[in-house]
Specification:
single chain; mainly alpha; MetI-like fold; 14 helices; about 75% helix
Length: about 290
C-alpha cells in the first residue's frame, strides 16, 4: 500500500514515540534488576550504573537456596512454591464455584432467583475494608489462621466472576441448548459438553486475572499468615525490609532480587495467554 510522505513521517514518529514510551516505562524495572545484581554497598552509595553488577549469581543463588535474609533459612524457592499453590487453588476454586453459581441461577427455576442474584451483585459495592473483619473472624472460628486454607477459601467466592459468567451464558445461542434438551441431555451433560467448551475463552480470561491478582495478594495473607515458611512471595519482600526496623540496613539487592523473581510467573502467564484473555473479554462483552 502506497503511503504519502506525510503518512510516512507520522508513522515513523508514532514508532519513535512508542519505543520511547516503552523505554521510559521499563527503565525503573531495569534499574531494579541492576540493583538485584549489585553489592549492597554499591546500591546504598548510589553508584550503580546501567550494566549488570558483579553479584548476580551470589545474590540470586543465596535467596533461592540459602535464605532470603541472613537470619532466616526460608528461601525464595519455598515462598514461590507457596504462592504458586495458593494461586492455583484459588484460581481453580473460583472458576468452579462461579460457573456452578452462574449456571444454577440461570438455568434452574430457583425461588427468589432475582433476589439471590441481586444480593450477590450488591456485594460488589462493598469495599474490601468492610469485609476484612468479618472474614477474619470466620477464619478464626474455623481454625484456618496461619494456614493455606485460611488464604484460599475466603478468596474463592467471587461476585464478579459469577456476574461475568452469568452474562456470558446469557449470550450463548439458545438453539444449541434447545437441541441438547431435545436429545435428552441432562443438566450435568449440558454444562460439561456444551456450556464449558463454548466458554473456554472466558474461563481462561478469568483464570489469568484471578491467578495474577492472587499472586499479588498482600493484605489478606499479611493478616492470616504468621509463619514465614507458609508465607507468599510478597510477604517475603516485606520481611526483608522489616529487618531494618531495629536500626539495620535494608538489603536492597535481596529485596530487588525477590521482586524480580516474583514478576516471572505473572509475566509468563500473561505473555502466553494474552490472546485468550482478549478473546474472553470480547466474548463477555457481546
Amino acid at each position: 500500500m502506497y503511503l504519502s510522505r506525510k503518512e510516512k513521517i507520522l508513522k515513523i514518529l508514532s514508532y519513535i514515540l512508542l519505543i520511547a514510551t516503552a523505554i521510559f516505562s521499563c527503565f525503573p524495572l531495569w534499574m531494579g534488576f541492576i540493583a538485584s545484581t549489585s553489592d549492597i554497598i554499591v546500591v546504598i552509595s548510589g553508584k550503580m550504573n546501567f550494566l549488570i553488577g558483579d553479584s548476580f549469581f551470589q545474590n540470586y543463588s543465596s535467596i533461592l537456596t540459602k535464605g532470603i535474609t541472613d537470619v532466616s533459612t526460608v528461601t525464595a524457592t519455598r515462598l514461590m512454591m507457596n504462592t504458586f499453590i495458593i494461586s492455583l487453588f484459588v484460581t481453580t476454586g473460583k472458576i468452579i464455584v462461579s460457573i456452578l453459581a452462574a449456571y444454577g441461577l440461570l438455568y434452574f427455576e430457583i425461588p427468589l432467583e432475582k433476589l439471590i442474584f441481586s444480593t450477590i451483585f450488591l456485594t460488589l459495592m462493598l469495599p474490601i475494608e468492610v469485609r476484612i473483619a468479618p472474614t477474619y473472624q470466620v477464619a478464626v472460628n474455623f481454625g484456618m489462621i496461619n494456614s493455606f486454607s485460611g488464604i484460599i477459601f475466603p478468596l474463592i467466592a467471587s461476585a464478579t466472576a459469577t456476574f461475568l459468567f452469568r452474562e456470558h451464558f446469557l449470550h450463548l445461542p439458545k438453539e444449541i441448548f434447545e437441541a441438547a434438551l431435545l436429545n435428552a441431555a441432562g443438566p450435568w451433560k449440558l454444562l460439561k459438553d456444551i456450556i464449558i467448551p463454548m466458554s473456554r475463552n472466558s474461563i481462561i480470561a478469568l483464570a489469568v486475572v484471578t491467578f495474577v491478582s492472587t499472586w499479588n495478594q498482600y493484605l489478606w495473607p499479611l493478616l492470616v499468615l504468621n509463619d514465614l515458611d507458609k508465607s507468599m512471595i510478597n510477604l517475603g519482600i516485606k520481611f526483608v525490609i522489616a529487618q531494618s526496623q531495629d536500626g539495620g540496613i535494608v538489603n536492597w539487592p535481596y529485596v530487588m532480587a525477590l521482586s524480580m523473581i516474583a514478576l516471572i510467573p505473572p509475566v509468563i502467564i500473561i505473555f502466553f495467554l494474552q490472546s485468550f484473555f482478549v478473546k474472553g473479554l470480547s466474548d463477555t462483552e457481546k
